[in-house]
Amino acid sequence: MDKIVAAKVFIDVAHTSSFSVTADRLTMSRAMVTRSIAVMEEWFDARLFHRTTRKVALTNVGVECLEDLKRWVDDTEKMIDQFKPNADLKGTVCIATSMSFGHSQLMVAVSEFMSLNTKVKINVELLDSPQDLINNRIDLAIRITKSPPPYLLGKPIAKCRSILVASPHYLNKNQPINSPEDLLHHQCLGHKNLETNAWSLYKDNLKKVIDVNCRLVTNEATSLMQACIHGTGVSFLPIYLIQPSIDNGQLVQVLPDWALKDMDIFVLYPSRKHLSPIVRAIIDFLSDYFKRHEIN
């Protein structure tokens, strides 16, 4: 049996925790899924899953080898694609990203890619919450996160730096903000997807965690920016989104000596799925594009 196929089955079962579900998703028999896992366990000479009548779960060995197998499959398929005959890219790709990143960054990059590949069609889904890429037929997603989900392959393409901001009007009518503790006396604006109102701020070797009072919470960064511009309160927002508003004076940085932790911007894609040349080309293009157009 092809070990690449077996590895893909292993990765998918690690995600679904079910041989039957993986069989349905990969359009193969349950017996073939079972055989694929047996091949992997023979290869590693170790049990990779705990099996019960209700579900399966990774063993410690399975957990340890999962990420390495994802990289191995990805690198192998990339090498194979490099030796295939060159042809014009054509087809349709669906990309999911947040409204803020799509509006301020992705559309410019996509436009450049499409000008170079005139037979490519791209659908962009603006979604501010994580989605099941496979069931929603999304080829790749761009997400800002500390680490990608274990059932997806992720390639970091840029850094996301955020800062605390407020409007001049808000700052003029409220008491000064000279230290992180001063935020406790201010109206703060929170992001729902963070699931916490504890803001961590860093200065040299110091770290301060402030439990802020968020009267307004939204799941979308562009809305937070507009609320800040209209004097609703203080929030932390990605520089890639708010730099124009800082340049024109609509927003002012708060506590400039204190930093928020940077996060990675990942391209995420389903690990079970063989990447088509067009999807791989977009991933490589975005990686190169954001090296050439560094996000501040």
UniProtKB/TrEMBL annotation:
Keywords, in A-Z order: DNA-binding, Transcription, Transcription regulation
Presence of the UniProt keyword Disulfide bond in the record: no
Pfam family of the protein (one): LysR_substrate
HTH lysR-type domain span: 8-59
InterPro entries per record: LysR-type_TF_proteobact-type, LysR_HTH_N, LysR_subst-bd, WH-like_DNA-bd_sf, WH_DNA-bd_sf
Domain of life, source organism: Bacteria
PROSITE patterns: HTH_LYSR
CDD domains assigned: PBP2_CrgA_like
Family statement: Belongs to the LysR transcriptional regulatory family.
Name the UniProt record assigns to this protein: LysR family transcriptional regulator
Native source species: Vibrio echinoideorum
